[in-house]
Amino acid sequence: MNRQLRENIAILLLRFTTYAIVGVVGYILLDIIRHGLPVINWAFLSEMPRRGGSEGGILPAIVGTLYLTLGTVAIALPVGIGTAIYLSEYAAPGRLTETIRLAITTLAGVPSIVFGLFGLGLFVLFCQFGPSLLAGSLTLACMVLPTIIVTSEESLRAVPQAFRQASLALGATKWEAIRTAVLPYSVSGIITGAILGIGRAAGETAPILLTVAAFFLPKLPGSIFDQVMALPYHLYILATQHPDTDKVLPLQYGTAFVLLAMVLGLSLGAILIRVHFRRKYKW
Description:
By secondary structure, the chain is mainly α. The protein is 76% helix and 1% strand.
């Protein structure tokens, strides 16, 4: 078998794998849209749940998921960007810095249930926040933080050193050079990390199961110390724990459709911001 034939076979296998993955994802999306879209109406989106979630709407779950996602990004993004700036611009090369990077990369692969147990022990019990929006947001922020740090650092390191050197040569301090000549050109990559964090935070069930989520809570949260309903946990209960599965099957598809639309909407908004900065700052 010559090299050209081996290369053609490899390309064919890669193409088949790609098409197979796209096909499976497309089928799942079409199935959710086909069964979930007919369920969507104003009452379903705006009413409180009734009878243990088997009737009524999912407004508290929508609001709870939105609060959790925005709270997670509000906590994780500044901390992640700050850590990335330190590792990229201030930390001296050496074994300690490489160990920190290795630890961050390792944390990105830790199962979500471990972060849930960590949040339960630290935020719910030790800090005495109880099952609350604050505890859930902090737990999800810890979970998405490694992804944001890694993507932000790579984006910062991709900016040419000449930008920094030119700013320093003009009399700028190191922070002024970072703020004016580095950060604006790395915003698109940083937002990419935020998009990945949004998708993971909005769709996780295990961490919020232990720190914040309530299945049936027909009211909106009044403070950061209240429990909330969330779409992933609500969908999990409807699919696995509800005694009348056939009755709530349309609600399952409707909830899945709303969750999918919310994640896509938040991600689309972040993508538009990324495109804006990418066009504004070119190098």
